[in-house]
Amino acid sequence: MANAKINSIGLFIDGNYFVLLEKGLGNTSRVNIKGLIKFIQKAIAEKYELDPASCIVTETHFFRGRYKAYDAKRKNMLLDDRKFEDRLIENDVILHYKHVYELPDGTPHEKGIDVWFALETFELALYRDFDFIVMITGDADYEMLARKIKSLKKPAILLSWHYDEQNPTAKALKEEITYHIDINSLLKADPTLSNRIIEAASL
Predict the structure, then answer these.
(1) What pLDDT is attached to residue 1?
(2) pLDDT for residue 139
(3) For residue 106, how far is the Cα from the chain centroid?
(4) Strand locations in 26-167, DSSP E?
Protein backbone atom coordinates (compact mmCIF):
# COMPACT_ATOMS: atom_id res chain seq x y z
CA MET A 1 0.00 0.00 0.00
CA ALA A 2 1.39 3.39 -1.03
CA ASN A 3 2.03 5.92 1.69
CA ALA A 4 -0.66 8.58 2.03
CA LYS A 5 0.38 12.02 0.84
CA ILE A 6 1.60 14.37 3.54
CA ASN A 7 0.53 17.98 3.13
CA SER A 8 3.59 19.73 4.52
CA ILE A 9 3.16 23.04 6.35
CA GLY A 10 6.02 25.46 6.96
CA LEU A 11 5.32 27.72 9.94
CA PHE A 12 7.21 31.02 10.32
CA ILE A 13 6.85 33.14 13.47
CA ASP A 14 7.64 36.82 13.87
CA GLY A 15 9.17 36.55 17.35
CA ASN A 16 8.60 40.13 18.45
CA TYR A 17 4.95 39.87 17.47
CA PHE A 18 4.63 36.58 19.35
CA VAL A 19 6.29 37.91 22.51
CA LEU A 20 4.03 40.98 22.55
CA LEU A 21 1.06 38.67 22.08
CA GLU A 22 2.04 36.68 25.15
CA LYS A 23 2.46 39.88 27.16
CA GLY A 24 -1.03 40.88 26.07
CA LEU A 25 -2.39 37.61 27.46
CA GLY A 26 -1.20 38.66 30.93
CA ASN A 27 1.02 37.10 33.57
CA THR A 28 -1.21 34.10 34.21
CA SER A 29 -1.64 32.87 30.61
CA ARG A 30 0.54 32.02 27.63
CA VAL A 31 0.19 30.49 24.18
CA ASN A 32 -0.02 26.71 24.13
CA ILE A 33 2.45 26.20 21.29
CA LYS A 34 1.64 22.54 20.71
CA GLY A 35 -2.07 23.32 20.79
CA LEU A 36 -1.65 26.19 18.34
CA ILE A 37 0.25 23.98 15.90
CA LYS A 38 -2.48 21.34 16.08
CA PHE A 39 -5.08 24.04 15.50
CA ILE A 40 -3.22 25.31 12.40
CA GLN A 41 -3.13 21.79 10.97
CA LYS A 42 -6.86 21.37 11.57
CA ALA A 43 -7.73 24.80 10.14
CA ILE A 44 -5.83 24.14 6.91
CA ALA A 45 -7.39 20.69 6.55
CA GLU A 46 -10.88 22.16 6.89
CA LYS A 47 -10.21 25.10 4.57
CA TYR A 48 -8.75 22.99 1.78
CA GLU A 49 -10.92 19.89 2.40
CA LEU A 50 -8.02 17.62 3.24
CA ASP A 51 -7.63 14.67 5.58
CA PRO A 52 -6.67 16.26 8.93
CA ALA A 53 -4.17 13.46 9.55
CA SER A 54 -2.33 14.42 6.35
CA CYS A 55 -1.75 18.07 7.30
CA ILE A 56 1.46 18.31 9.30
CA VAL A 57 3.61 21.26 10.36
CA THR A 58 6.95 19.80 9.34
CA GLU A 59 9.08 22.83 10.24
CA THR A 60 8.57 25.79 12.56
CA HIS A 61 10.94 28.77 12.42
CA PHE A 62 11.10 31.59 14.97
CA PHE A 63 12.85 34.93 14.33
CA ARG A 64 13.64 37.43 17.05
CA GLY A 65 16.21 39.87 18.34
CA ARG A 66 17.81 38.89 21.65
CA TYR A 67 19.96 40.69 24.21
CA LYS A 68 23.45 39.36 24.83
CA ALA A 69 23.70 37.20 27.95
CA TYR A 70 25.28 39.84 30.21
CA ASP A 71 22.78 42.48 29.09
CA ALA A 72 19.87 40.12 29.69
CA LYS A 73 21.26 39.28 33.14
CA ARG A 74 21.67 42.96 33.97
CA LYS A 75 18.04 43.54 33.03
CA ASN A 76 16.89 40.47 35.03
CA MET A 77 15.61 38.90 31.79
CA LEU A 78 17.96 35.95 31.46
CA LEU A 79 15.88 33.32 33.29
CA ASP A 80 12.64 34.32 31.57
CA ASP A 81 14.37 34.27 28.19
CA ARG A 82 15.74 30.79 28.79
CA LYS A 83 12.38 29.46 30.01
CA PHE A 84 10.73 30.88 26.90
CA GLU A 85 13.37 29.27 24.67
CA ASP A 86 12.88 25.95 26.47
CA ARG A 87 9.22 26.01 25.42
CA LEU A 88 10.19 26.61 21.81
CA ILE A 89 12.84 23.88 21.83
CA GLU A 90 10.43 21.40 23.41
CA ASN A 91 8.16 21.95 20.40
CA ASP A 92 10.99 21.49 17.87
CA VAL A 93 11.00 25.15 16.87
CA ILE A 94 14.08 26.25 14.93
CA LEU A 95 15.46 29.46 16.46
CA HIS A 96 16.86 32.36 14.44
CA TYR A 97 18.35 35.13 16.60
CA LYS A 98 20.21 38.38 16.07
CA HIS A 99 21.55 40.50 18.89
CA VAL A 100 19.54 43.48 20.11
CA TYR A 101 21.45 46.69 20.66
CA GLU A 102 20.36 49.72 22.64
CA LEU A 103 20.17 53.19 21.16
CA PRO A 104 21.65 56.09 23.18
CA ASP A 105 18.24 56.74 24.74
CA GLY A 106 18.03 53.12 25.92
CA THR A 107 15.51 51.99 23.29
CA PRO A 108 16.17 48.41 22.12
CA HIS A 109 17.02 48.20 18.44
CA GLU A 110 16.66 45.11 16.25
CA LYS A 111 18.53 45.42 12.97
CA GLY A 112 17.68 43.18 10.06
CA ILE A 113 15.32 40.69 11.72
CA ASP A 114 12.40 41.50 9.41
CA VAL A 115 14.64 41.20 6.35
CA TRP A 116 16.04 37.88 7.60
CA PHE A 117 12.51 36.62 8.27
CA ALA A 118 11.44 37.49 4.72
CA LEU A 119 14.55 36.09 3.00
CA GLU A 120 14.61 32.86 4.99
CA THR A 121 10.90 32.26 4.59
CA PHE A 122 11.03 32.77 0.84
CA GLU A 123 14.16 30.64 0.43
CA LEU A 124 12.66 27.75 2.39
CA ALA A 125 9.36 28.12 0.52
CA LEU A 126 11.38 27.81 -2.69
CA TYR A 127 13.56 24.84 -1.77
CA ARG A 128 11.53 22.88 0.78
CA ASP A 129 8.63 20.73 -0.32
CA PHE A 130 6.06 22.77 1.61
CA ASP A 131 2.47 22.69 0.41
CA PHE A 132 1.48 25.61 2.63
CA ILE A 133 3.35 28.54 4.16
CA VAL A 134 1.91 29.98 7.39
CA MET A 135 3.18 33.25 8.83
CA ILE A 136 2.37 34.45 12.34
CA THR A 137 2.72 38.22 12.16
CA GLY A 138 0.76 41.38 11.57
CA ASP A 139 3.36 43.60 9.92
CA ALA A 140 2.68 45.32 6.59
CA ASP A 141 6.38 44.84 5.75
CA TYR A 142 5.59 41.23 4.81
CA GLU A 143 3.09 42.13 2.11
CA MET A 144 5.63 41.50 -0.65
CA LEU A 145 6.75 38.25 0.98
CA ALA A 146 3.19 36.95 0.73
CA ARG A 147 3.10 37.96 -2.93
CA LYS A 148 6.38 36.19 -3.68
CA ILE A 149 5.21 33.02 -1.94
CA LYS A 150 2.10 33.02 -4.11
CA SER A 151 4.31 33.34 -7.18
CA LEU A 152 5.63 29.89 -6.26
CA LYS A 153 2.04 28.59 -6.58
CA LYS A 154 1.87 28.01 -2.83
CA PRO A 155 -0.76 29.43 -0.47
CA ALA A 156 0.52 32.25 1.72
CA ILE A 157 -1.49 31.85 4.92
CA LEU A 158 -1.53 34.48 7.63
CA LEU A 159 -2.30 33.73 11.26
CA SER A 160 -2.89 36.91 13.22
CA TRP A 161 -3.67 37.23 16.90
CA HIS A 162 -3.22 40.88 17.73
CA TYR A 163 -2.49 41.54 21.34
CA ASP A 164 -4.47 44.77 21.71
CA GLU A 165 -6.94 46.85 19.72
CA GLN A 166 -4.24 49.45 18.96
CA ASN A 167 -2.24 46.93 16.93
CA PRO A 168 -4.56 45.33 14.40
CA THR A 169 -3.25 43.29 11.50
CA ALA A 170 -1.98 45.51 8.68
CA LYS A 171 -4.60 45.98 5.96
CA ALA A 172 -2.03 45.70 3.15
CA LEU A 173 -0.90 42.30 4.45
CA LYS A 174 -4.44 40.97 4.81
CA GLU A 175 -5.21 41.97 1.24
CA GLU A 176 -2.20 40.10 -0.15
CA ILE A 177 -2.39 36.73 1.62
CA THR A 178 -4.27 33.69 0.34
CA TYR A 179 -6.09 32.78 3.54
CA HIS A 180 -6.36 34.55 6.87
CA ILE A 181 -6.69 32.70 10.18
CA ASP A 182 -7.96 35.46 12.47
CA ILE A 183 -7.61 34.10 16.00
CA ASN A 184 -9.37 37.06 17.62
CA SER A 185 -12.53 36.51 15.56
CA LEU A 186 -12.38 32.75 16.06
CA LEU A 187 -12.11 33.11 19.84
CA LYS A 188 -15.21 35.32 19.85
CA ALA A 189 -17.13 32.77 17.76
CA ASP A 190 -15.93 29.76 19.78
CA PRO A 191 -14.83 30.53 23.35
CA THR A 192 -13.84 26.87 23.84
CA LEU A 193 -10.97 27.41 21.41
CA SER A 194 -9.03 29.15 24.18
CA ASN A 195 -8.81 25.83 26.04
CA ARG A 196 -6.75 24.45 23.16
CA ILE A 197 -4.44 27.33 22.34
CA ILE A 198 -4.01 29.12 25.68
CA GLU A 199 -2.58 27.58 28.84
CA ALA A 200 -1.68 28.67 32.34
CA ALA A 201 1.72 30.29 32.60
CA SER A 202 4.19 28.46 34.81
CA LEU A 203 6.03 30.32 37.56
Answers:
(1) 40
(2) 84
(3) 27
(4) 29-31, 55-66, 93-99, 101-102, 108-109, 132-136, 156-160
Phi and psi at 62, nearest 5°, equal -125, 125
User: What's the CA gap between 148 and 25, in Å, rounded?
Assistant: 32
The domain locations on the chain are 7-200
- Residue 167 confidence (pLDDT): 66
CA–CA dist 38, 132 (Å, integer): 15
In degrees, to the nearest 5, what angle opens at C-alpha 105 toward C-alphas 75 and 62?
55
pLDDT tens-digit series, residues 47-81: 999 999 999 999 999 999 998 888 889 889 899 99
Strand partners, 176: none
Query: 29 forms bridges with which residues in the sheet?
Result: 200
Q: Which residues in 11-20 are b (16+ Cβ under 10 Å) and which e?
A: bbbbbbbbbe
pLDDT tens for 112-128 read 899 999 999 999 999 99
Distance CA 12, CA 175 (A): 19
Q: How many CB atoms lie within 10 A of CB 144?
A: 14
The closest alpha carbon to 183, from 136, 115, 117, belongs to 136
What distances in angstroms separate CA 129 from CA 58, 61, 95, 132, 152, one per listed residue? 10, 15, 20, 9, 11
Alpha helical stretches, state H, 2-102: 15-25, 33-47, 69-74, 78-90
Q: Which residues, listed in sequence order, are joined to residue 135 by a DSSP beta bridge? A: 12, 158
For domain 7-200, say whether CATH 3.40.50.1010 is its number: yes
